[in-house]
Amino acid sequence: MSPVAAVVRRELRSYFVTPVAYVFLVIFLVLAGILTFYAGDFYQRGQADLQPFFVMHPWLYLVLVPAVSMRMWAEEAKGGTLELLLSLPLTLAQAMLGKFFAAWLFIGLALLLTFPIWITVNYLGSPDNGVILASYVGSWLMAGAFLAIGACLSAVTQSQVVAFVLTVVVCFLLILVGQPQVLEFFQGALPRRLVNAVAHLSMLRHFEAISRGVLDLRDLVYFLLSMASWLTAGVLVLDLKRTP
Amino acid sequence: MIETEQLTRRYGNLTAVDALTIRAEPGQVLGLLGPNGAGKTTAMRMIAGFLEPSSGTARVCGHDVRKEPLQAKRALGYLPEGAPSYGELTVREFLTFIIRIRGLRHDAGYRRFEEVVARLQLESVLDQCIDTLSKGLRRRVGLAQAILHNPPVLMLDEPTDGLDPNQKHTVRQLIDAMARERTILISTHLLEEVHALCNRVVIIANGRLLADATPAELEARSRYHGAVSFSAPGSGVSQEMLGRLPQVASIEVDPLDGRITVFPRAGERILEPVETLLRQQGLEVSEIQLERGRLDEVFRNITTSAEGRA
């Protein structure tokens, strides 16, 4: 078995023998339900789609994803197992990928477990299931980008609390950066092209584009590139910590 | 085989390991000895590939840890200080993870697993969480992890630290049994361990190499090497008589238990003359001993004189 797969299995095992996994899954599902039905006016809208469900995901991830990613490296550094892991024959990149994939698969599982809401909307009407599928894909990609940020920032510190707070702040900025209010603020100070570039960094913008049911290559590239860059940064942080 | 070459690690202004060059051969148990903070752990971490050296390098079985880190790590079994492991896993899950990550094939890995578990007597706790195990058992799990892939080189950072005497004995027996054909590097600050385990000793303090010798050679540096000590309760042994022997340099009496130690002049052997004298005087001697030398004294001399210089 490749070292990456070994790390993935170990990580997933650790999620499920500790309460982490169950607490996360329950809170994610309960919050997703509450936000959709109460805050999102799922019934009153009278439309057979899952838009009120998906629109809440960035905000759900903002709190819940850092809670998953914070332990990734901080816990290993604190508990001394980092020394064990790094003396095993695998590269830093393999270790990082293994941890990231485990967390990403886990969030994927949480997303899959929201299937009753999909059944509900199909029972009540005839939604466009293509759009729903695209939204699920987009949501999972966004979760991956948040996780990659969390993985990098968890490598920075031994403290899980610090890792959590840093990740929330960075993710919050990346959600907000495309909002009109923020862009207006930049409009005076920056040339238009740069403002446009800033707007393109927004998670929300790319997620919303995918949720409309269009799997545009540019949005895919945005998320995959985000993940790759943050994970690479995380590997660099880990490497920096072991060099004098 | 483990070799280090001018291995150095600096943290800012502090030099934790300073141009350390050591070498451990197959069949050898090399003890890395030094006071706390001497740089033992830092040196081991660099050999294990956890830390990058500031300069110099180390080789494990000929693989340079900087140029071929994966090959070096494959040849090495490493027990980090305090035997860290994933406490939420069971012993079985943890060892399975190690088998997978080391890429052992399923059947070979399984055979090795059975062997190692039997050797370290972990059968009864295989399905217990590591967090719930005693310190001694956790150390054994750490050792199991280190030897699962049957490595030619084994490196153990304070393997018996914090264990009770019985657990220490068990761990030492295990190391002893594994010593043949392997290269073993252990770090310790316990001098008893040197006698029990090592056939060569490297003493470091402040990151610098201070001595590289066999335990016997180190003992020979002791003031006590070749001295004769005995207890003669209830009899006034004449120190004067002993002092008149031509081979004797000095005599000391322990103020607590009255034990008498007779020191020889350089190169002299004094057991026989002392025994003869005692017999001639008709003195009752409960027990008489030829001292090999005291490692703790040698250790103290070597490491404190280095501190004075630093």
UniProtKB/TrEMBL annotation, chain A:
Keywords, in A-Z order: Cell membrane, Membrane, Transmembrane, Transmembrane helix
Keyword Ribonucleoprotein belongs to the record: no
Record membrane topology: Multi-pass membrane protein
InterPro entries: ABC-2_transporter_component
Subcellular location: Cell membrane
Keyword Oxidoreductase belongs to the record: no
Membrane-crossing segments per the record: 12-38, 95-119, 131-154, 161-178, 220-240
Pfam family, one: ABC2_membrane_2
Protein name from the UniProt record: ABC transporter permease subunit
Organism in which the protein naturally occurs: Dyella halodurans
From TrEMBL, chain B:
InterPro entries: AAA+_ATPase (IPR003593), ABC_transporter-like_ATP-bd (IPR003439), P-loop_NTPase (IPR027417)
GO MF term (any one): ATP binding
Xref: Pfam families: ABC_tran (PF00005)
Keywords: ATP-binding, Nucleotide-binding, Transport
Stretches assigned to coiled coil: none
PROSITE patterns the record matches: ABC_TRANSPORTER_2
CDD domains: ABC_DR_subfamily_A
Residue span, ABC transporter domain: 2-231
Keyword Transport tagged: yes
Protein family: Belongs to the ABC transporter superfamily.
Protein name per UniProt: ABC transporter ATP-binding protein
